[in-house]
Amino acid sequence: MINLKINDKDISVEDGSTILEAAKKANINIPTLCHLDLHDLGLVNQDANCRVCMVERKNGSMVPACNTLVKEGMTLRTDTLKVINTRRTMVELLLSDHPKDCLVCVKNGDCELQDLAENVNINRIRYEGEVIKFPIDDSSLSIVRDPNKCILCKRCETVCTDVQTVGTLTDIGRGFDTVVGTQYNNPMHQTNCTFCGQCLAVCPTGALSEVNCVHKIYDALRSDKTVIVQAAPAVRVALGEEFGMEPGSVVTGKMVSALKNLGFDYVFDTTFAADLTTIEEAAELVHRLKHGGKLPILTSCCPSWVKFIEHNFGDMLDIPSTCKSPHEMFGSIAKTYFAQKNNIPREDIVVVSIMPCVAKKYESARPELGGEGYSDVDHVITTRELASMIKDFSISFADLPDTEFDNPLGESTGAGNIFGASGGVLESSLRTAYHMITGEDLQELEFHDLRGLKGLKEAEVEIDGKILKVATASGLGNARRLLDNVRKGTEDYDVIEIMACPGGCIGGGGQPFIHRDISILEKRMEAIHSVDKEKEVKLSYKNESIKKIYDEYLGEPYGEKAHELLHTEFVYRKKYE
């Protein structure tokens, strides 16, 4: 233990601790901006670039608290005029080179720089001078990059390079012209970016944001077309946060009521399509096991992960499941089966997906996911965008009644709901694969070894005397380590689930910001599994609407019609070195 004093308080902390960590232990607040410690997710950004956390040593010198290690006998002050003036000056300098469009900024009211300026009592900017002016990169379908709002905290660079191992974002230039940009300063869509959105999830300002599609939804609702909306499982356990409700609140019924108030013609559940995905993925797994197919089979629900493997593991494109993601399966069924049953021409249907993910925006435009001249899904909005629409309509969300999804594409099981958390897709598929192989229902439905926020998890499952070795990875860095071992032959698995975001879809780039509080992800995950527990039907193959669609339309799981509508292919993509 190291003994030191901060503001005359005696403190003992473990050797290797920073001044900031020691101050937190003593309940002494030191403002920070660039610093971000999400240690459990493998993300620690402590480059001390902003210099807001400066503290004064006994000799009068100043040091940054976030990355200065404590020493025995150290004496520090956080409350001197010198410290306060230094802190205020650093914030003023940041503001002097920052756009003054706060009232119309996408992060207005949710901006850490804005909050910090208020907390240190900035009421005027004393420094005026040259202001940087970079072009805004809105080239991608998922992420908008506004370098003019970048404060060089490098959080995005840390999460992109160290956590996700994608390496798209890096600092470019020197001195005043330094900016966090892309490889060779290319547009985002011409890089290795997977559009996972973790960069914008940690960005403290409006430098990174999702492509906003709300205006397209309003245009569709004003049209004469039939507008169908679907909502993913992870949305219902996070949306309430935008309206002051406790993290982990399950707001399914209120969300459905809000969507009906917004004017959608049909409100369906992506969880229905998750059950459909479960059937197809389990059938594909069983087919490979019985016919000597290539293993391991990799889940393919996450578009960011799919783009990652296309860029980085082009030699392994024959092992992911060919299943479309659930919301894309839904779009395909809505524009065929549902359209035919209701005598609606396909071209008169607009499918809107509400997702926790910004990569789904890019995914919906992939040419493989649709037909000639049309896409399975027309528009994608995030949980945050849906919240903004509800606020636009002045709807009192907390006071809404609980309303059921429309049918037949709104019926779901507990197995479909757990798709929203890491391990859920694998768990759901194993429940059904067990039945397909043995003809019996699995008695122990909960795979506890596959649950939780841990980035890499594995388990062994016995089915009809055969031991299947399975694994899950959340976070693309964990996925890379797993696949490197599979490629080298040092690890041998039968089934692998991969999700790009920490904890799975509950931690997606389109979810409400967690603001350094990992417990929010834990509460969302608990809520996802609570829905599974409360569902009377917990097995996808017992979903009556799923049975009906196979009987009436699709035929056999993994059959010819199912392949035509519910499966896809992958594309080898150049990796930008």
* Biggest sheet character: 5 strands, mixed
What's the overall average pLDDT, rounded?
Answer: 94
Gross morphology: globular
- What strand line-up does the widest sheet have? 2-1-7-5-6
Low-confidence stretches: none
Cα separation of the termini: 44 Å
- Evaluate the radius of gyration: 25 Å
Number of helices: 18
Structural class computed from helices and strand pairing = alpha/beta
As a percent range, the share of helical residues equals: 25-40%
Count all strands and give the number. Answer: 21
Could you tell me the strand content as a percent range?
15-25%
Description of the structure:
This protein has helices at 19-25, 81-96, 112-119, 155-163, 198-202, 214-222, 252-262, 270-291, 303-312, 326-341, 359-363, 383-392, 414-417, 424-438, 476-488, 519-534, 544-554, 560-566, and strands at residues 2-6, 9-13, 36-38, 43-45, 54-57, 62-64, 75-77, 143-145, 169-172, 179-182, 208-210, 226-231, 266-269, 297-298, 349-355, 370-371, 374-375, 379-382, 456-463, 466-474, 495-499. It has 577 residues and is of the alpha/beta class. A five-stranded mixed sheet has the order 2-1-7-5-6, sandwiched between helices. A four-stranded parallel sheet has the order 13-12-15-18, sandwiched between helices. A four-stranded mixed sheet has the order 14-21-20-19. The protein is globular. The model has no long low-confidence stretch (mean pLDDT 94).
